[in-house]
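STRUCTURE:
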């Protein structure tokens, strides 16, 4: 056997399918064994591999054992001369294996090989070639100097920015998304270090390959796509902790004395620095829009107070200045609080949710107005005028931000994009059907034939004219049918068109259309998979709010309710566990919820209010499925009322 391709998968079924299809094409004419190690995915990845790729050797772990251990499982069971560790969210070219194996055969001193990598927008990923993280190199990367001086060999030694992306030359570190290694090198230096759960294992193994007397090389004559961030979510606190923790493990293992001390201290400082930057960035993104809303509404109330005092009461200071420091904050809190609970801050922007929140907030203010102290009853009309200003300012601000970003006033959407599909007529019809089933609106301009064509009634032109077609028809999105267009050609066009155009690939016989418009975000899917209401932020928020309110009500009336409770201690314990977020009043059936959005363990479940003589496993799964799919907070209300005696 010439090559063993090993892919570790965790809940990225659609990307795994595309990766395996590309591996199948790239393996033609070669003796290749493909291994998939699944780390207990819950998205039917295992079933998909068994059904669509019978030639693949599958290891289905019952736990998430991590990247290193999972790869080692397959390496030990494989027998090939070369081993390739490949990410599940990658696509290889048809000639990738042929070219890289030929290079390895001609250069027996090379122990490991990496290749040119682009993201889903065609942008080159600098981590395709890296240097070892010495204390100086790590400092420059951790504190942003490598980003400020990307071409400098002094400040960007981590990404080797001074070296061309299309060349071939020795490097220090291979990227974990594509690590082609000689079996004899692994036999000498050992497999991946299982102390690294995720991140750092590629640096560690690359370092040991060089220390073992071999060379690592960057090979720029072939390209792969890596949908960065799909297997892991970067930019999170967990990523910062795990990544820099891995660097500390690496330093303790390979550095000695003062060098190790300096590196570890640097990494610990970097953890705090990056964590602070991550928290600050996340916080600023979260509070920016609400802060703008608060300032706008407050300025409006400030003007309305003066206007209404002069216009209606003929006295500029009739409504006292205390209104601005007591009433206004209360009004703003209630209005924007209801906008938040109505989903007015969720994406995409919804005028209906915003206006509903303002309306409900106004109703609440009107209801409590009569209970306020006389000194706080400024004027009912100020509540009405303030509500109108709140609705106008909040909606207007969103129109402004949307226009600045998208240059149109189609709020709640980025606009219907001009789309062309590259493929044969049957595949194009299949893609259009998928888009219709998903409910994605596109302005379909026409079809591009992968081959030369004179049929200008059916096709806009041929593939070689794609750049002209994009320019003439102002195309914003291109979908490539991989059944009809070679991966080599797709990647060439992705690099040629650049990041300004959204590009996606529909794998052969797949129900998913895959792409990414930003190298820092997860890959994006158009898929006809079931969409669960319980996954939507507004429903999850309402569910949590219902849990808290129900817990408060139960606690207030507990002296009466405990008289009817079967297990008084359990009832009180449940109240506090739900209130603290440890459990939820309504969840899935015990042991159920497989392949469904995660929920806290429930006190009750959908099966507790169903009267059946026999409750079997399929029935419980269907009830759980329908609960997640069609969820709204009134389902919880109904289940709680129907199963009250079981609380």
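SEQUENCE:
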């Amino acid at each position: 056997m010439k090559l063993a391709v090993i892919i570790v998968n965790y809940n990225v079924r659609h990307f795994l399918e595309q990766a395996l299809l590309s591996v199948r094409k790239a393996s033609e004419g070669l003796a290749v064994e493909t291994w998939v190690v699944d780390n207990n995915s819950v998205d039917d990845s295992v079933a998909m591999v068994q059904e669509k790729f019978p030639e693949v050797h599958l290891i289905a772990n019952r736990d998430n054992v991590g990247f290193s251990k999972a790869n080692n499982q397959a390496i030990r069971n494989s027998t090939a001369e070369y081993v390739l560790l490949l990410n599940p969210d990658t696509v290889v070219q048809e000639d990738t294996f042929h070219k890289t194996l030929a290079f390895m055969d001609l250069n027996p001193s090379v122990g490991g090989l990496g290749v040119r990598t682009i993201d889903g927008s065609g942008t080159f990923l600098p981590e395709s070639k890296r240097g070892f993280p010495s204390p100086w190199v790590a400092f420059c990367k951790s504190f942003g100097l490598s980003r400020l001086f990307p071409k400098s060999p002094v400040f960007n030694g981590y990404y080797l920015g001074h070296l061309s992306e299309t060349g071939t030359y020795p490097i220090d570190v291979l990227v974990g998304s594509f690590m082609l290694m000689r079996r004899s090198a692994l036999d000498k230096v050992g497999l991946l270090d299982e102390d690294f759960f995720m991140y750092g294992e590629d640096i560690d193994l690359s370092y040991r390959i060089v220390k073992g007397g071999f060379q690592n090389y960057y090979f720029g004559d072939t390209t792969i796509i890596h949908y960065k961030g799909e297997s892991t979510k970067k930019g999170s606190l967990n990523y910062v902790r795990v990544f820099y923790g891995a660097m500390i493990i690496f330093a303790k293992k390979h550095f000695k004395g003062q060098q190790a001390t300096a590196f570890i201290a640097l990494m610990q400082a970097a953890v705090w620095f990056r964590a602070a930057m991550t928290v600050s960035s996340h916080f600023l993104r979260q509070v920016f829009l609400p802060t703008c809303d608060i300032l706008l509404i407050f300025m409006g109330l400030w003007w309305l107070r003066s206007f209404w005092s002069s216009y209606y009461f003929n006295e500029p200071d009739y409504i006292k200045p205390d209104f601005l420091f007591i009433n206004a904050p209360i009004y703003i809190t209630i209005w924007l609080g209801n906008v938040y609970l109505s989903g007015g801050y969720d994406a995409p922007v919804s005028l209906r949710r915003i206006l509903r929140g303002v309306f409900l907030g106004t109703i609440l203010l009107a209801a409590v107005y009569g209970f306020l102290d006389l000194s706080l009853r400024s004027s009912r009309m100020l509540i009405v005028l303030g509500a109108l200003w709140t609705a106008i300012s909040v909606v207007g601000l969103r129109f402004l931000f949307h226009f600045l970003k998208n240059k149109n006033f189609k709020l709640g959407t980025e606009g219907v994009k001009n789309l062309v599909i590259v493929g044969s007529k049957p595949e194009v019809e299949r893609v259009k059907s998928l888009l219709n089933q998903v409910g994605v609106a596109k302005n379909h301009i026409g079809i591009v034939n992968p081959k030369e064509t004179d049929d200008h009634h059916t096709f806009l032109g041929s593939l070689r004219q794609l750049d002209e077609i994009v320019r003439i028809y102002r195309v914003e999105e291109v979908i490539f049918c991989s059944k009809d267009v070679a991966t080599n050609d797709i990647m060439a066009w992705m690099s040629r068109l650049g990041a300004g155009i959204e590009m996606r690939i529909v794998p052969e016989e797949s129900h998913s259309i895959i792409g990414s418009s930003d190298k820092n975000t997860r890959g994006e899917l158009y898929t006809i998979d079931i969409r669960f209401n319980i996954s939507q932020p507004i429903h999850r928020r309402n569910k949590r709010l219902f849990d808290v309110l129900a817990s408060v009500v139960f606690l207030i009336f507990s002296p009466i309710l405990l008289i009817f409770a079967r297990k008084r201690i359990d009832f009180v314990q449940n109240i506090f566990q739900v209130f603290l977020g440890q459990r939820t009043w309504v969840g899935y059936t015990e042991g159920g919820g497989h392949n469904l959005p995660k929920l806290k363990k429930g006190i009750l479940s959908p099966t507790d209010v169903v009267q059946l003589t026999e409750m079997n496993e399929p029935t419980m799964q269907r009830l759980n499925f329908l609960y997640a799919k069609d969820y709204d907070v009134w389902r919880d209300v109904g289940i709680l009322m129907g199963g009250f005696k079981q609380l």
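REMARK: The first helix runs from residue 13 to 26.
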